[in-house]
Fold this sequence. Notes:
Strand order of the largest sheet of chain B: 6-7-8-3-9-10
Order of helices and strands of chain B: HEEEHEEHEHHHHEHEHEEHH
Number of strands of chain A: 3
CATH class of chain B: Alpha Beta
CATH topology of the largest domain in chain A: MetI-like fold
Strand order of the largest sheet of chain A: 2-1-3
Structural class of chain A: mainly alpha
Largest sheet of chain B: 6 strands, mixed
Distance between the termini of chain B: 41 Å
Number of helices of chain A: 18
Helix content of chain A: 55-70%
Shape of chain A: extended
Oligomer: heterodimer
Radius of gyration of chain A: 32 Å
Number of domains of chain B: 1
Order of helices and strands of chain A: HEHHHHHEHHEHHHHHHHHHH
Helix content of chain B: 25-40%
CATH topology of chain B: Rossmann fold
Number of helices of chain B: 11
CATH architecture of chain B: 3-Layer(aba) Sandwich
Number of domains of chain A: 2
Amino acid sequence: MTEMAQTTAATRTAETVASRLSRRYAAERRFRALGLGSILLSVGFLALLLGSIIDKGWTGFLQTQIAIEIAFDPQVIDPDGSRDPVTLDTADYAALVRNGLVARLAPEADRATRRDLSALVSTMAANQLRHMVTNDPSLIGTRATLWLLASDKLDMVVKGQVPRQLGADGNSLNDRQLGWLGELEQAGQTRKTFNATFFISGDSRAPEQAGIWGAVVGSFFSLAITLLVSFPLGVATAVYLEEFAPSNRWTNLIEVNINNLAAVPSVVFGLLGLAVFLNVFHMPRSAPLVGGLVLALICLPTIIIAGRAALKAVPPSIRQAAAGLGASPLQIVAHHVLPLAMPGMLTGTILGMARALGETAPLLMIGMVAFIVDIPKSPLDPSAVLPVQIYLWAGSTERAFVEKTSAAIIVLLLFLVSMNMVAIVLRKKFERRW
Amino acid sequence: MNMNAVLPQGSSKISAKALDVHYSEKQALFGVDLDIRAGEVTALIGPSGCGKSTFLRCINRMNDLVDGARVSGSLTLDGTDIYDRIIDVVQLRARVGMVFQKPNPFPKSIYDNVAYGPRIHGLAQDQAELDEIVMTSLEKAGLLNEVKDRLQESGTSLSGGQQQRLCIARAIAVEPEVILMDEPCSALDPIATAKVEELIDELRENFTIVIVTHSMQQAARVSQRTAFFHLGKLIEVGDTEQIFTNPQQPLTQGYITGRFG
């Protein structure tokens, strides 16, 4: 009797389980599909974002040049034949370029035609000639065919970013200029080369002469200041709060406030920097020093929180082992806990720095949004930083700045990716298991 | 030099009188009176939560690391109150070493693990003396033959039993007078346990040992005296043989015969 009851109960269990089994598995499949779907969606958006930036930006790494035969006419450069360096430096090299263009494309040119011709090349071309002549005055009186940097308008047409049809809407060159361009192209006198200018110069009003090096140096100075200030402060704070501070109302208050600070919008830190560093301490405006200090304030909560998490992750058994041998509290921290927590702290710091590299708003507040051509030589010089440079170019009207903006974004993303890679490598390399 | 040489075997090394311990609101020890004799192994037994580990951790003041822990009553080491203001906790822990339940070598080389204590206390004048201390300690811990060719390898690369003996070597490298062991074999297999027990028996010649254990066989095998704790009170203390063959208290009787615990 009991045996039969038992058998019935067992059968009933098996049946109930079996009837619900397919529903349980279906729920699991739905859950997995949902997760996979959301991952695919985000990967898709990321690909779209990167794809559009790279598609728009890669041409920014190229520049158009045109080949023109230049006559280094002594009458224009140095009519007296004195070879005086000042005369050589101040000569009208733009006229040499213009004469070369006239001779090649429109020998019978009037004043308006000459102006149209000049618009084909960048003003950089004249600088190029000046540089050549001041370096080697013996060039005067000779002729040479040179590759000259094209103007941004010509560049856009060659790269196919503005319509090419004669008289089309939005055309940056007029019909006559387009005709000349066709003539040069047929004679093989145009080429696209690697745009080294983009990587070695500072900002410029002329898109074909604009580069990111000034902004890269500015970012480097800012981040160096940020690291120097926030890393020691952050680590010291984390160690004190986690290892030494008594747990009472005050430390709880401090902890809550640090967590709050991590969530404060960065523009507020910018206002703080403006009020304190600029208005009270009268530090230089637009300087990486101030930018770095403001970014350090933004990074500090992140570094402290990451540092405390890393310290918490050190097993208490290590602390007990050291304490049991008679190590003093400072020795326990310095010899055992801190070395074990350091990889985690470094990872947190690099991620904080990566965030600082991309910050724009707080730097606008302290005036790092000025148009600065010179490459900064110290953290006290006015300077731009990469994200602000992107912001500035994105607001420029010239069509050619569109590709520069995207190209600068690509460079910024490469920096961010490499910093994150360093963080991952550090973590993998130094993480200890026990 | 070792104080045990001065004190005759069997005299009282550590003495607790009316020792109370509170963790915040909760009282963990109630008026414990217990003498630990020099040159002997004293086993503390009792069911989980009975306060035996708490008592052990009072002796080297590891309870200081616990928030809200309060100790009252008297606990003396060689007649000096351990909780007296004049006692420096760093110095105390150099005299009273500890081996923990779970092997916890530092993630450093085997050599550095053993050398750490002598280094921070400045016990070695030069490298040669430090080498000597490390070798002697490893030998006393019965580990030298197994690790002498790989002293620079990480201490965490050893097996569990080897790690625990490394921790013992690390503790005796400081030349303490007392070694506290908190269930040193609970994470080890029977073979490693046998080795550690053998080691404890050898160490008795030079050190006073207090061991907390859940295994009554272990207490019977390694100790000369046994103290039985229950719910924070010391129920009975006596020679190990007497406790296991002829307990005076019914609670002790019940515990050692396995009726509760």
